[in-house]
Design goal:
By secondary structure, the protein is α+β, with helices and mostly antiparallel strands. It folds into two domains: 55 residues; 119 residues, no CATH class. 37% of the residues lie in helices and 28% in strands. The strands form two sheets. It has a seven-stranded mixed β-sheet, with helices on one face. A four-stranded mixed β-sheet has the order 2-1-11-10, with no helix packed on it. A hairpin with a 2-residue loop joins strand 3 and strand 4. Helix 1 packs antiparallel against helix 2. 23% of the residues are buried.
């Protein structure tokens, strides 16, 4: 529905304005410059209402919502030096911070030195830990250990024995102690 409203909004905005200039119709130009943005704004408001409704009803995020969250996610500096993890490509690299359904997710690229692509998943061999193999999914669902969005893979940090603490514009990676896993 939103895609159709967006399409008509742009069509009216651009097409109506061009036709108005070609015909010398100031009224058509004014209506196009007003009507197109009104439809685009309406589409944006529908998107906001859908997100609010999903949150109020505690619904899982749709693929479109996840894409929107990924696009708008803050990029923060990732630091794993406290637990001996070198972030790819170098210390101080920034990656998206995603929190979905109470779980922290990070791009697998940040852990590239410890990740191996295995079949339809990834194997994580973090320093001082056993290798963990996780299946990658095409889209997010609640509890997904690894999922793809916008051409990038994201891993649930707790699935590989890590947690993350956000400290202003920085993400500090921490190891989950065995006593933390049951909590």
């Amino acid at each position: 529905m939103r895609a159709i409203i967006d399409l008509f909004g742009y069509l009216i905005l651009v097409g109506g304005t061009v036709v108005g200039f070609l015909n010398g119709s100031v009224t058509l130009i004014v209506l196009s410059l007003f009507g197109g943005p009104v439809l685009l704004g309406l589409s944006h408001l529908i998107g906001i209402a859908e997100n609010v409704q999903a949150r109020l009803l505690n619904l899982p995020p749709t693929p479109d919502m996840v894409r929107s969250l990924v696009k708008n996610a803050p990029k923060l500096v990732v630091d794993g030096t406290d637990i001996g993890i070198d972030v790819y490509p170098e210390a101080g690299a920034s990656y998206e911070w995603l929190e979905l359904d109470g779980e922290a997710y990070m791009r697998t690229k940040a852990l590239r030195k410890y990740v191996e692509h295995v079949g339809n998943g990834y194997a994580f061999a973090l320093p001082g830990r056993e290798k963990v193999v996780l299946r990658a999914l095409d889209h997010y669902y609640e509890g997904a250990p690894v999922f793809w969005s916008e051409g990038h893979a994201y891993v649930m940090l707790s699935a590989i024995g890590l947690s993350a603490v956000r400290e202003n514009d920085r993400i500090a990676l921490r190891a989950i102690r065995p006593s933390d896993e049951g909590a």
